[in-house]
Write a structure and sequence with these properties.
Elements lengths: L1 E3 L4 E3 L6 E2 L23 H4 L5 H8 L2 H8 L14 H14 L3 H8 L3 H6 L12 E3 L2 E3 L2
Antiparallel strand pairs: 1-2, 2-3, 4-5
Length: about 140
């Protein structure tokens, strides 16, 4: 604290606040919350680990679907496909929640648990695919 004798005002060096009484003290700086989530935190840091979809996503052996459906995809021909896990997850969610194709695709872009269930690491506001006539086609 610095005492300005001319005006009789005390000033805190850190915060530059003025104090008129002799007993007034400088305020300590606030502690930063190191546990606060960043804007780009992963789903595992944000989501409730007891949520049913979170638990189910860990229980399913997704590699089985990758192995079973990989033979139907070409690495060299056509437009790149959406991830197999995402497409299987959308079908599972559609059946579990009794949703239409359009509804599950729309809800996926709004629901972080749906996105984590389908293998995403970060939230995405984009649609997972375009849905019409019971088909999911890359936009």
């Amino acid at each position: 604290m610095v005492l300005l004798k001319k005006w009789g005002i005390k000033i805190c060096r850190k915060s530059k606040k003025r104090f008129k009484k002799a007993g007034d003290l400088c305020m300590l700086p606030k502690q930063k919350n190191i546990n606060q989530m960043g804007f780009y935190s992963t789903f595992e840091e944000q989501l409730n680990h007891n949520h049913p979809l979170y638990k189910l996503s860990l229980a399913i052996r997704w590699h089985i679907f990758d192995d079973a459906f990989a033979k139907h995809y070409s690495l060299t021909q056509g437009k790149p496909a959406k991830p197999i896990r995402r497409m299987v997850a959308l079908l599972i969610l559609k059946q579990m929640r009794n949703l239409s194709d359009e509804s599950v695709v729309e809800q996926w872009s709004e629901n972080s648990y749906y996105q984590y269930f389908s293998g995403e690491q970060f939230f995405s506001a984009n649609m997972p695919c375009v849905s019409y006539l019971n088909l999911c086609i890359t936009p």
